[in-house]
């Protein structure tokens, strides 16, 4: 499925990052992109739900979601055509092309026209690479059907790591154009965060998981997002 408009130049940067990395991506990332499988286990979708992963990479998550939740229809969006080459091959190899549709484009430009309304929007270690992550979250919120859910797993603020480790990790992630979104986590933990939010922090504040419902009234907001969280 083609993108609505050319996603350059960020897409070009992502292609350069992943042109070679995509071949070793899944094997190497399993050691430090923590919390992805727990997010998948806890999706708890209704039969027939539609789910989009925004920044789907190699489709590693989409394939696991398809196997764990057989009634879902799945979509993946990614800025990197290079990553999508691997994703398309993996999806076809898994015999899941009839359930998983992939598209090239920017998270910030997602509209309901691309895949239609969805019941679940997943960001797995992509917000830390998406330049305008607030706009990407707003776009995901606009694509969610009423009662739809937003699921996020990503790096935390790293503040609980041993002395020195935070700086080393930030510098290393920077080599891959990854920036932990501390402002997002602060907002989720701050005064506007609802009491029964499903926010889970991993040890050392290394990463966090969030599951939140789209606001039915449009009044609720979580860190400025058009969603509310409930337990
Ligand atoms: C760290 S990888 C995570 C891949 C996958 N979600 C996972 O958990 O294995 C981040 C992905 O986000 C994509 N990405 C980065 N910026 C993007 C943007 N603005 N719009 C869409 N995808 C983007 C990258 O191309 C890459 O595939």
List keywords for this structure.
8 strands; eight-stranded mixed beta sheet; 231 residues; Rossmann fold; 21% strand; 34% helix
Give a structural overview.
The protein has 231 residues and is α/β, with parallel strands linked by helices. It has a single domain (10-217), classed as 3-Layer(aba) Sandwich (Rossmann fold), CATH 3.40.50.150. The chain is 34% helix and 21% strand. It contains nine helices and eight strands. It has helices at 10-21, 25-29, 36-41, 60-68, 81-93, 112-115, 133-143, 165-175, 182-189; strands spanning 50-54, 73-78, 100-104, 118-124, 144-155, 198-201, 207-214, 227-228. Strands 1, 2, 3, 4, 5, 6, 7 and 8 form an eight-stranded mixed β-sheet that branches. α7 (133-143) links the parallel β4 (118-124) and β5 (144-155). The chain is globular, with a radius of gyration of 17 Å. The model has no long low-confidence stretch (mean pLDDT 88). S-adenosylmethionine binds next to α1, α4 and β2. Residues 10, 14, 29, 33, 36, 55-57, 60-61, 77-80, 83, 106-108, 124-126, 129-130 line the site of S-adenosylmethionine (SAM).
Determine the strand fraction and express it as a percent band: 15-25%
CATH homologous superfamily title: Vaccinia Virus protein VP39
Could you tell me the number of beta strands? 8
Proportion in helices:
25-40%
Low-confidence parts lasting 5 or more residues at pLDDT below 50?
A: none
Largest sheet: 8 strands, mixed
Task: Say which molecules are bound, naming each kind only once.
Answer: S-adenosylmethionine
Please write the CATH class name.
Alpha Beta
Written as H for each helix and E for each strand, in order along the chain, the element string is: HHHEHEHEHEHEHHEEE
- Number of structural domains: 1
Assign an overall shape.
globular
- Figure out the total of helices: 9
**What would the average pLDDT be, to the nearest integer?**
88
Query: Separation of termini?
Result: 36 Å
Assembly category: single chain
The name of the CATH architecture is 3-Layer(aba) Sandwich
CATH topology: Rossmann fold
Rg calculated over all Cα atoms: 17 Å
Content-based structural category? alpha/beta
